[in-house]
Amino acid sequence: MPRIGNDWDEIIGGEFEKPYYQALRSFLIQEYSHAQVYPDMYDIFNALKYTPYRSVKAVILGQDPYHEPGQAHGLSFSVREGVSLPPSLVNIFKELESDIGIPPSKTGDLTPWAKQGVLMLNAVLTVRRGSANSHKGRGWETFTDEVIRALNRREEPIAFILWGAFARSKKAYITNPIHGVFESAHPSPLSAYSGFFGSRVFSKVNRFLIENGIPPINWDLGSDK
Is 99 annotated in the active site? Predict the structure, then answer.
């Protein structure tokens, strides 16, 4: 069974024993054996590995991993060091600069955010090369919905960042009034001008954290301090 290596094992470890996950596991064994699947199997749970349950300050929810070579490494919207920035990430950096003045990063590796408490969770954690949403409906949504429910039960405030209709549909699981929900259009070029640009989500999230006595996120990828 998978092991995360931090408090997530206690929080959601029981999911790995359930029938839906056993079926998902069998499917993934076949997929990784016969197709090109992203991310690498050892990176599937990086979002949970880098951001323990008790360390979560904010959640950025994505749909499924990037599906081209070298991109996905287990964090929503993030790509590995040295990989060209996808259009959505370019727009995220544009809004970051407009909002709080941080110049666009040359790297798309968002690991420093994850290590500061930003859980960068995709609803579906794997994908076939070149085929977006190819692992949709196989069981990952059941697993990640339980992750969101577990976060909702936490007694410390969390900022949930929901970009686009898919992410916003998960608002139904965020019922605890201590949490903050920050919604806007998706940063994709198809929708960024429909409400993502100008949303000022980064400063709003930090304001929410500070108001709740939680250290803010340093969104500057030049430093993870």
Answer: no
